[in-house]
Amino acid sequence: MAGIKSLAKDTAIYGLSSIVGRFLNYLLVPLYTAVLPAASGGYGVVSNVYAYTALILVLLTFGMETGFFRFANKSDEDAQKVYANSLLFVGGLSLLFVVLCMVFLHPLSALLEYPDHPDYIAMMVCVVALDSFQCIPFAYLRYKKRPVKFAAIKLLNIIGNILLNLFFLLVCPWLDVHAHETVSWFYNPDYLVGYIFVSNLIMSALQIFFFIPELRGVSYRMDKVLMKRMINYSFPILIFGLVGILNQTVDKMIYPYLFDDRSEGLVQLGIYSATSKVALVMAMFTQAFRYAYEPFVFGKNKDADSKKMYSSAMKYFFIFSLLAFLAVMGYMDILKYMVASDYWEGLSVVAIVMLAEIIKGIYFNLSFWYKLTDETYWGAYFSLIGCAVILGLNIWLVPTYGYVASAWASVAGYGVITLLSYFIGQKKYPVAYPLKRMTTYLILALVLYVLSQQTPIANLWLRLSYRTLLILVFVAFIIKKDLPLRSLPFVNHFFK
Questions:
Q1: pLDDT one-digit tens code per residue, 216-247
Q2: Which UniProt keywords apply (predicted)?
């Protein structure tokens, strides 16, 4: 139980940067949808470009985050040497990427169908290279159990990005009208999408200064033998990482190409991406859990009760994922204001996207078995299968059913690989997951969800109060079955 409490504490701290941080970042969505109307397709451009950068980020990190944790936790390895080799590899790869992209910038921009804006591509090339390199110092902070600094850097970056976006998208337009001469020397009112990328570039460049203590005092000498072993271990992780991120972003990459009119595709993509943001509360929770869970898994691997802890971690992840689902869907009447009203037609995908995120989180919890057994090629197989399902369904169904088909394609893709990972994992590294208890929670959550959505209550506040009551029923069930108040710190002494 002590291990689970430690995992919960670290998840909470990482959640400060992931859940709170992303929530602050998502406050930009109302701004973007307000200044970039749905019909303009501007938000579709942002979503499309960021989809490519997410893919490249995985390519440049090369699976070295997981590789670093694996080798740094081996008793026969020098953790500092592992860290130095990780920095050298990812840093060198990122630098090579920037040089090549800048040399072929115009052909690359034309290939991505942004021939009039090579500046968009150039900025995001630099951003993704900086972020890739900084993934290793971030991993080092997690390894050293320094979640507070990790969270602080993440939050400062997000807050800075928000302030810059507010400056370029709100302050500058106001000054351009009322005090034109103060901003006319650098501000272009027609460059709104570009300023989103400018803000990101500035903060990615500034963030590296926070890592000076982690980058100094390191012996930057490449150990060829160690590097080869790390690459061999990390390469399959890279493959399934690439395919895994494709599972998340391939729809946003290909979406404009699935329509005869690319502009219409960007408009639809903007609506889909904006409304999907409402569902990403689940992604925030999953990410926070991932930051704490990966070092937890490798650190606990030697413990006698490790499998019992993995089982408990899966159960609690599933329970609180369902709670997050009920909360988001229950308060949709409020959360929909995260996007401008001309984007609301896409809110029908929120529940579907959240379902996909829950399944993806379960898959992540299952995935540790092939990492601990060093059979990471299984992850590559699963990711390829999932990508094939998602890509095929998008190409087949999106031209007819639009972005709803994209959302269901993600559910199908993650569902297939989750089942494969579970059944194969039970043969390779069996863990007794509490499936009956998890099924009970699933049924209860589904019943409460149907009641919340199908009970007609016209008055907004009465409807929200009713849904809050249903959520509290779920919380009460958690407390009764799996989280008794007696077990909580600062509460148990009241029962003595």
A1: 888 888 888 889 998 988 887 787 778 778 87
A2: Cell membrane, Membrane, Transmembrane, Transmembrane helix
